[in-house]
Specification:
single chain, 276 residues, little secondary structure, nine-stranded parallel β-sheet, two-stranded parallel ribbon, 13% helix
Length: 276
């Protein structure tokens, strides 16, 4: 289900540090509603015209420096907007006008935050903000009651964003390649089926993870976990059927000898059989 497939056991991988964040120049202050530069204006216009017919607007990889003003004319009907792989520093408050949008792809830009108005998007199901400069989420994220997939990988989070606990429809959250140091107490409130925390700096894993009601896949590869963090409660009493832990501070070959591994292995095997 996640982007990086892990295994429940195997040979220990070399210790590695979390992926370093790309160094990007800080964007200068601009008017968010400026038009794209030079030749891209015609390209944007063509894509927007097509989106008026399809409800899907693809504006990725166009070297845009600002949120494209033209798409606001489609705010009431657009279902998918992709502005990934540009150089956009901010998302304007007018994003609140996109009330029909289900998928918002804004990865690989220069965002240091999201506007509080994003919480108005009640129909939003997929939000991809990977490869930006985010370290937190607006408190209004809790209003995204339809959100199923949240991708926050390759940002600058150092604390697990607990606001996502309120997302009752959430299936998957990807926080890989950040700087998170702990999976906190209270994590049992999260509704996700899969949590990807690969390549962080996690040394603390709360036993509350065993009480997550729907959690089936927990990815913790290449972190800073000691053996003692993988407790019998997590292995025996959780619903986790895939626990990916290679590349931590203990040899992965020791995993089968952990207290509770047998119960975990039964869940893992049963899940593999169901998947064919």
């Amino acid at each position: 289900m996640g982007n990086k497939q892990g295994t429940e056991s195997g040979r220990p991988t070399p210790q590695s540090h979390p992926r370093s964040q790309s160094s990007r120049p800080q964007p200068t202050s601009r008017n968010n509603f400026s038009f794209p530069k030079m030749g891209n204006a015609n390209t944007v216009k063509k894509h927007v015209e097509m989106a008026g017919k399809t409800g899907t607007c693809q504006l990725a990889k166009l070297n845009l420096n600002e949120f494209p003003a033209e798409v606001e004319g489609l705010a009431g009907s657009l279902r998918m907007l992709d502005i990934s792989e540009n150089r956009i520093p901010t998302i304007p408050p007018s994003i609140s006008q996109f009330t029909m949008i289900k998928s918002l792809q804004i990865s690989s830009n220069r965002l240091s935050g999201l506007p509080s108005e994003i919480g108005v998007l009640k129909k939003l199901e997929t939000l991809n903000v990977s490869d930006n400069q985010l370290s937190s989420l607006p408190s209004t994220i809790t209003n995204l009651k339809s959100l199923k997939t949240l991708v926050l990988s390759q940002n600058q989070f150092s604390i697990f964003p607990t606001g996502v606990y309120a997302l009752r429809a959430l299936d998957s959250i990807d926080l890989s390649c950040n700087r998170i140091t702990a999976v906190p107490d209270g994590i049992s409130e999260i509704q996700a089926i899969e949590i990807n925390l690969n390549q962080n700096q996690i040394s603390v894993l709360s036993e509350d993870v065993a009480d997550c009601p729907r959690l089936k896949v927990l990815r913790l590869e290449e972190n800073c976990l000691e053996k003692a963090m993988i407790t019998p409660k997590i292995l025996k009493q959780s619903n986790i059927a895939l626990l990916a832990i290679d590349g931590n501070l203990f040899p992965a070959k020791d995993f089968p000898h952990f207290d509770g591994y047998e119960e975990y292995q039964e869940r893992y095997t049963a899940t593999k059989k169901k998947m064919g």
